[in-house]
Amino acid sequence: MLVNMKEMLNKAKNGHYGVSFFNAVNMEMARSIIETAEELKAPVIVGTAEVLLPAMNLDDVAKYLIPMAKEASVPIAVHYDHGLTFEKCMEALRLGFTSIMYDCSTLGYEDNLEKVAEMVRICHGMNVTVEGELGHVGDNAGSGKLENPSDYYTDPDMAVDFVNRTEIDALAVAVGNAHGDYAFPPKLDFDRIDIISQRTGIPLVLHGGSGLSDTDFETAVKLGISKINIFTDIDKAGKRGIEKGLQAGAKTMMELMPYEIEEMKAVVKEKMRLFGSIGKA
Fold it and tell me: Between 96 and 182, whose confidence is greater?
């Protein structure tokens, strides 16, 4: 069933488990995620991000994800992640996405707050949830790499003000996490997660989940992380599946697809187990 994130994440926060968000830039990814969620009776969030649109445009993503979510036997939110422009966020709304992350985290505090609050006013009128980001989650490689990541960590006092003034439904926090592959084991600021969770009272979101240890995840969820974003792990799993298929003698895309889906399903299942969402649908 197609839902927004509000009830899903509030239940996760109160139940001390996490809900997975997986980017699904093709049908094989979407099948892997949704079929596994149904098998495990787990809620899940699927979608895409603005930076991934070269792989599959937003209109095409909506054409397969939204009908699949509607027909699913478990709650599924279709989320537009890291929306960088107002125009693309509005396009996602028109296409039927049920959740929007408007990422203005690289702007000054008041600009970020003002723009996200405007998005909340629009989205809440359409029964669509909004995720904001305070602090800045950088990348482990490329232009988003931060020289001193701790300078961009989410400030708890600002988080309280930001949540109260924007009325967002979920807050993405910067606590030592980063997008992409970790070159070195990350050190998450668990005390910061705990403080922000207690003081804001809303579900927190951990971006850059691929590559964190099981202990990192378990501790973060226990302290208030309710949504965990995964892409690199499932993306690599698809590649592994194709390689296995080729080694097994597959000669066509049709023959490769079962291997690809099997590997991605294994990652989805493991994350749902780790985050504690199995049986929570």
Answer: 96
